[in-house]
């Protein structure tokens, strides 16, 4: 199946992708994204795209371009959270500290193209069920051990073990199967669990790992840069902060939850080339945008993790600082647990959805920024997005659905609001409260501290939960809506939805995959599992003396090439 290493194998789907690009059936970005997923190097993909389109992307150095300077400390305001097991990380902020210590098999850039990282390359079988990962040689862990296939297999096996509690088991759902535990649920049905399929992970040699799926999956390389897929040492005991053993250029020198995380560059050679900063300091000024902005304005830090729309004017008026804005698929979903009353009633959920006019949220919540959402958690910027007919606000239809659900006189419900990434969540729910009142639904807001919300986010019957950007819609759907996966906070379980998502994930042809997503999006929207009003923009600011920064849509920090022009 595989050609010798001295003659790189071209996946048979790539010529079809090239034809589609040349004929204008797909755009350049989609060609680059998909061809690199199928194992073509980024350089070869860009060259092929240039030849096919006649468009050559060149970077001309500015006349006053500066040479990076080595040394200095980069100070960032960001929440400093508990940081133990990367496979169970549930906040990007945790990974931003850790990703300078431990690394990933792949890396997805700000251009949405996934490239090799700890894995030097990968190859997919013709049917996309087997993926062979070839690892870089010569990489050392901080303790002196060589990075090998044993490390990678160790991580995959942990992810696929339900006892670990990793969200990755949903992301790699094609590598697991449902099995009967022999026990019964309260309703008498068999109690099921998940386990890795036979042969899911195979060590081929010291630097080669093969993974197998029970059906075709296109997005394996992109899945490997999701933040809980950080690679730990094969001897990992469960606390990344205390063990402090990675392949990255930094180690943790000081750490206190809620206060600070101090990273210092190791004195060992780094496999990834020159690293400029001596130290990276994270300081916790809280999650409030105003507090982070105040720390920046007073010179306590050089950059902040994010600020909300309410601080935009302040940021614009700060001389010597630049604003970075990312177009993202970040959002928050008002999700209902379909196993708990009254949200176990599909017609009730549909009534609430038809009372919502999502078109007003960008204007009233984000000053005209952001994009209206469509209640199915696939964004317009996702390459597989299929445009469904819009869900129109229809009070009469909503009232009839409510009456058919058994609530002709309306009802009262409460949503838990943690404002976990800004007060815009509360503003969104307040706007929703006004809209739902038109059909007789009284929406009460239970506003709680963000830390308290994260204690109940997967337990509350009705809550608004922030979800970060993923480069593919199928990724977030696999994490959040597949039956029985750890991050399925709505408790939604639909064999029809799972099968439709399986099909969409298996297709290389862009048009076919987009067409398959029609069923995926429609099923989730029709079942009205979530009320999703808006896709939000993301902002951060930094001092102009900080060079090499980029706005990543997932707010990932990768400061290996950042430097300070003191």
Q: Overview of this structure, please?
A:
The structure is a single chain. This protein has 566 residues and is an alpha+beta fold. Helix content is 28%, strand content 22%. The protein has 18 helices and 22 strands. The chain has helices at 14-22, 28-37, 42-53, 92-98, 149-159, 168-171, 220-223, 240-243, 289-297, 312-316, 346-354, 361-366, 395-404, 424-437, 450-456, 473-480, 495-506, 510-526, and strands at residues 73-77, 106-108, 114-116, 119-124, 130-135, 176-184, 190-196, 201-205, 208-212, 250-256, 260-265, 279-283, 303-304, 321-336, 371-372, 411-417, 441-447, 462-467, 530-531, 534-543, 546-547, 563-564. Strands 14, 15, 16, 17, 18, 19 and 20 form a 7-stranded mixed sheet that branches. A 5-stranded mixed sheet has the order 10-11-12-1-13, covered by helices on one side. It is globular and about 70 Å long. Residues 1-6 and 56-64 have low confidence and may be disordered.
Structural class: alpha+beta
Low-confidence stretches: 1-6, 56-64
CATH top level class name of the largest domain: Alpha Beta
CATH architecture of the largest domain: Roll
**Percentage of residues in helical conformation:** 25-40%
Rounded to an integer in angstroms, the radius of gyration calculated over CA atoms is 24 Å
> Structurally, how many domains make up the residues?
3
Gross geometry: globular
Strand content: 15-25%
The DSSP helix count reads: 18
The largest pleated sheet is described as: 7 strands, mixed
CATH topology (level 3) name of the largest domain: Dipeptide-binding Protein, domain 3
